[in-house]
Amino acid sequence: MKINKTDEVVDLWWKCKINSILFDPLYSTNKVDYMLAKEKFAKKLIEQKFEWIAEGVFKKVFSKKNIDFVVKTYNSGAVDDKKDKRFKLDKYCVDSIYFDGAILIQPKVKRNKKNKAYEFFEKKWGKHYCELHDIHQENIGWLNNKPAIFDFMTC
Ligand SMILES: Nc1ncnc2c1ncn2[C@@H]1O[C@H](COP(=O)(O)OP(=O)(O)OP(=O)(O)O)[C@@H](O)[C@H]1O
Ligand SMILES: [Mg+2]
């Protein structure tokens, strides 16, 4: 079976989680220390030549040349809004490759001409709608030559 690069990253994440289980000899409530797991994971990604490409308010973003995905680790408590077909922006939102509440793997969008991508959405839905749903130049780009949204708000 061919293992792809995203499977390798998920595997790495699972290993970090397993190595971050807090052993409690008195109780049977052994839990993953997610802060520790994310710390170990970030180190492993850097070792594998990933670069820390951005740190937003809610997450750290990693990627490297020649791969077509990004890996995000969430700061504690933060979770993105889910894709939801009831919202018209849904069809422009990139699909998740892997998500478990602590990390997210997502297709990498091209970030050139992001002003053009924004113009597309503003023209389509208006400035107010874009503001309401957090659609701005730092949350969008291009995927398969189509405007794409990778971070948004629907609530
Ligand atoms: N799928 C992606 N493809 C390419 N670059 C991305 C992708 N996702 C995130 N980035 C880069 O990482 C930055 C932060 O990502 P994201 O918006 O998901 O995090 P955030 O914590 O919500 O950030 P902010 O608080 O600034 O909105 C983006 O502005 C962009 O530069
Ligand atoms: Mg954002």
User: What is the count of DSSP helices, taking H or I runs of 4+ residues?
Assistant: 4
The shape is globular
Strand content is: 15-25%
Q: Percent helix among the residues?
A: 25-40%
Radius of gyration: 17 Å
Strand order of the largest sheet: 3-4-5-7-6
Number of strands: 9
| Uncertain runs | none
Rounded mean pLDDT is 92
The total number of structural domains is 1
Largest sheet: 5 strands, antiparallel
Structural class: alpha+beta
What is the N-to-C order of secondary-structure elements (H for helix, E for strand)?
Answer: HEEHEEEEEHHEE
Separation of termini?
41 Å
Bound molecules: adenosine-5'-triphosphate, magnesium ion
Name some characteristics of this structure.
9 strands, 30% helix, binds magnesium ion, 155 residues, five-stranded antiparallel sheet, 4 helices, alpha+beta, binds adenosine-5'-triphosphate
Task: Give the SSE layout.
Blueprint: H1 5-18, E1 21-22, E2 31-32, H2 34-47, E3 51-55, E4 59-63, E5 69-74, E6 98-99, E7 103-107, H3 114-125, H4 127-132, E8 140-143, E9 146-149
Antiparallel strand pairs: 1-2, 3-4, 4-5, 5-7, 6-7, 8-9
Helix pairs in contact: 1-2
Bound molecules: adenosine-5'-triphosphate and magnesium ion (MG).
The site of magnesium ion has 4 residues, from loops.
